[in-house]
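User: structure tokens for this one?
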Amino acid sequence: MSTVKVGAVREHEFPVEKAAVGSIDFNEDVTLQVFTPYQGRILETFAKVGDDVKKGQMLFTIDSPDLLQACSTLISAAGVLELTTRALKRLSLLYESKAVAQKDLEQAVSDQQTAEGTLKAARDAVRIFGKTEAEVDAIIKDREADSKLVVKSPIDGRITARNAAPGLFVQPGNAPAPYSVANTSIMWMLANVAESDVSAIHVGQEVEVTVVTYPNKIFTGHISAINSNVDPNTHRMLVRSEIEDPHHELRSGMFARFAITTGAPVRSLAVPLDGVVREGDGTMTVWVTTNRKQFTQRTVKIGERKDGLRQILDGLQPGELVATEGAIFLSNMLAIGQAGG
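Assistant:
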């Protein structure tokens, strides 16, 4: 009997809420497929499924013939500008000594200006491929065309799919995308809600979500979509919620439970969870005492659980003394006594 503790039945505030189970999934609204902007063969890959990546982080490189052509045009344009600049300088000196006509000098000026415009356009064409000004200058200086195109992550997120492999020929927009990246700061929970509860649920309502991995942590969010169809077999409807996950703790496929408040809280009698026993026939019982020494088993009707307490809807009165710990011991003793009798 030292394991049995006794306490008075008191009231506790219980929320009016609906509950459902479901699973965590990636937020498809913030999931991006990362394609190559130009065709080519993949040279290297730098991320795998499950990796967290930052915006601008390198995902893969390709050998791009379009970039190679753009670099070749840049080198050629730089060479033409160099020639026309030297020619203009030479003709300027000859014009000062009256050795050439003014029209020849004007033509040289025009050629040099055209070459400057062509080089600027060639530089812009290479920058479109993601090359920096320093890299463009290096291409011109070294006279070496760089065909390596770098494809970076467009957002912070997690790699959810990878179809890229070295040697694979890829083209813009051709499925499957080499990589898929999802922003995991906001995840989805897909829950199957009972048909009878749908009328109490609407888009925008706040939800609290728990997962098995973090049993003592509550994730918050709101309902973002409610399916228009009810499954005729299960009589349940799919409800989608957006769940905040700033620390990226949730994983796609996790089993989850959500609770949504549908009314003002109510005050009800409550007993600690260890004071309520589920018997073999499915009934719920508590052990009542008046002198803390003798106990009587009583069937009760239970409701929700909150803060380590079980809501008692019927079977007890305020102030009655019940076993708050060790109730299962009393039930076992009763069962042994009945078996022996």
